[in-house]
Design a protein that fits this description.
It contains 15 helices and 10 strands. By secondary structure, it is an alpha/beta fold. The protein starts with a strand and ends in an 8-residue tail after the last helix. Helix 1 crosses helix 15. It has one domain: P-loop containing nucleotide triphosphate hydrolases (Rossmann fold). An 8-stranded mixed β-sheet has the order 3-4-2-5-1-6-7-10, with helices on both faces. It has a two-stranded antiparallel ribbon with strand order 8-9.
């Protein structure tokens, strides 16, 4: 099982659309995919469930990630596996031919959880207790995903909030790789190196506490890699990226510490303008192999190849 956190400090970069469609294409190839929605906007969840369905089937029954994080230590009283749901519409399209998409839903109230977690983090009375609490809180999602009940999944994609709060940090600690969607413009690329710097600082602090003689030996060091930046909402003219965006992409490729994937996803209101309305991601509704379908196939090839995850037909 490979765990990938999908994140960018900047919102509005197509992060959720990319996560939903990447997961859908991987499932169409026979992979067992789990999507975890950690963004309080809950848009990934609403890509598969209507708001009414979310209220009645998920929120009112307590099957959202907010309930899990609300435990004194996240997951202590609520097994993460109890929150997994199987969206009907997308899996009906997949047809049960090996691949599937499961989901752990977000909650609009997740926005308050970071403050609650920070308060718990500051509650230790000794240095050793503080280190242990740091490891327990930051490592909670990693520990939960190591449960045997998740062993059947090939790929876990975590849709993170556009920040570097504690909930996002739990996703980073749980992940083998970080995928960074970005628009080819100044604001979307401005914080890429800053993101990588914060990522390295978190890794160093976590591993320092693990290796410290007073650290909690139940935790292992982490080393999440940056899979790369994938540029989204790209403007294409005469089969070429428009010059202004091309220049931003090359600037990141040449001068940033963040690798840039070869794949790019063009802006396509025809495909993504009604995202979420049908409960089925656009790449499973598209007919034929138009340019956008080919781009998502290329992206899926690139991501799965980098992760070493083989589709069902190639095992």
């Amino acid at each position: 099982m490979q765990v990938v956190a999908v994140m960018n400090y900047k919102g509005g970069v197509g992060k959720t659309t990319l996560t939903a469609n990447l997961g859908a294409v991987a499932a169409r190839r026979g992979l067992r995919v789990l999507l975890i929605d950690l963004d309080p906007q809950t848009n990934l969840t609403f890509s598969f469930y209507s708001i009414d369905e979310w209220h009645h089937q998920l929120k009112d029954t307590g099957r959202t990630i907010k309930r899990w994080y609300e435990d004194e230590l996240p997951g202590r009283d609520t097994p993460l596996a109890d929150l997994v749901v199987t969206p009907e519409r997308i899996n009906a399209v997949l047809g049960g031919a090996g691949g599937c998409v499961d989901l752990i839903s977000s909650h609009l109230g997740l926005i308050d959880i970071d403050l609650e977690l920070a308060a718990r983090l500051g509650g230790a009375t000794t240095l050793e207790g503080s280190k242990r609490k740091f490891l327990d809180l930051h490592g909670c999602l990693r520990r939960a995903l190591a449960d045997d009940q998740f062993a059947g999944y090939d790929l876990v994609l975590i849709d993170c909030a556009p920040n570097f709060g504690l909930v996002t940090k739990t996703a980073i600690v749980a992940s083998e790789q970080i995928l960074v969607p970005a628009k080819a413009d100044y604001l979307s690329t401005l914080g890429l190196d800053y993101l990588v710097g914060n990522l390295r600082a978190l890794v160093d602090q976590f591993n320092d506490f693990v290796h410290h003689k007073g650290g909690d030996r139940s935790h292992r060091p982490i080393d999440p890699g940056v899979l790369g930046v994938v540029f989204t909402m790209v403007q294409i003219y005469s089969q070429q990226v428009v010059l202004a965006q091309h220049n931003y992409i090359e600037e990141v490729r040449l001068n940033s510490r963040v690798p840039v994937l070869e794949s790019k996803i063009r802006n396509s209101p025809r495909h993504f303008g009604d995202a979420g309305e049908t409960g089925v991601p656009a790449m499973l509704r598209a007919t034929g192999r138009d340019d956008v379908v080919k781009e998502f196939d290329q992206l899926t090839d690139e991501v799965l190849g980098a992760l070493g995850v083989k589709p069902e037909e190639n095992r």
